[in-house]
Design a protein that fits this description.
This protein is mainly α. It contains twelve helices and no strands.
């Protein structure tokens, strides 16, 4: 078993090393420069009064509002509420979608039975479920979590299905030659082979969850970052609205970076080149 896993690691080691080298050679100064340029352009447009001040707040106004929101504790409460909903919905969608996609990929009859309805449900906008979510679960956490779950579970299932169905058959033949049983085939071959695609799907789905939580909290929420944006819009507080947008973007990037760290696991690295 060890020999079998090691051979796969050797096969893909060169590709992973090249990928790591490319990432390490990218200077963070470039990102800082681009971000600074965008903020400078934003400040310039605000100073030139191209748009009315009430509809285009300056970076300084947004920063002052951010500090005020932090001091009042409102922003912290909204962040906690949104993070809770996104985390629960995302974990539930992964706990359901990945196993379902795995079984669909491994067993063609299950795939034939479930794939049409999975594709149909994936094509539906998660926001179309908002009326049902409110009727079934009321206004609050449960309805928002349901919408987040519906946005992520089907993309995750189909991505896992595609990754599993496309594993080269020679992997399994080689594994059987090494005497691996069914459980070992799953843990030593299938999981490492599909993890790169599954991690990518998780990163994409996490972004979808943040998109949906904002829309859901605008309609079916009483707090959260989406509600903050909606309340700021109703009050014509564009500075608060921009604060909500900035915080959502920052948390989206942080979560994506956290999921990206999964690609550095030894059992995942060899699967990037097959």
């Amino acid at each position: 078993m060890v020999c079998f896993s090691s051979r796969y690691a050797v096969v893909c080691g060169v590709s992973c090393l090249c990928m790591d080298t490319t990432i390490k050679n990218q200077s963070p100064l470039l990102s800082v420069a681009v971000t600074g340029t965008i903020v400078l352009l934003w400040a310039t447009i605000s100073a030139l009064k191209i748009f009315p001040a009430s509809t285009f707040p300056s970076p300084l106004e947004v920063a002052q509002t951010f500090i005020a929101e932090v001091r009042s504790g409102t922003l912290f409460n909204d962040i906690v509420a949104s993070l809770f909903r996104v985390s629960v919905g995302f974990v539930l969608s992964a706990a359901v979608g990945i196993p379902v996609g795995l079984f669909m990929g491994l067993y063609p009859p299950i795939r034939a039975a479930l794939l049409p309805i999975m594709n149909y449900l994936r094509a539906l906008s998660p926001l179309a479920w908002i009326p049902f979510a409110i009727l079934w679960f009321g206004v609050g956490d449960t309805s928002t979590i349901f919408l987040i779950f519906m946005s992520a579970v089907f993309p995750l299932a189909l991505a896992t299905l595609a990754a599993t169905a496309n594993i080269p058959g020679i992997y399994f033949r080689a594994a059987r030659d090494f005497g691996l049983n069914q459980r070992e085939l799953l843990t030593e071959v299938t999981f490492p082979a599909i993890l790169p695609q599954v991690i990518t799907a998780l990163r994409v789905s996490a972004g979808l969850c943040w998109l949906v939580v904002v829309a859901a909290e605008m309609i079916a929420g009483r707090d959260g970052l989406g509600y903050l944006i909606w309340d700021a819009r109703n009050g014509l507080r564009m500075d608060r609205l921009v604060v909500g947008m900035v915080v959502i973007g920052l948390f989206g990037v942080v979560i994506d970076r956290i999921l990206l760290q999964l690609t550095k696991l030894p059992s995942v690295r060899w699967g990037y080149e097959r």
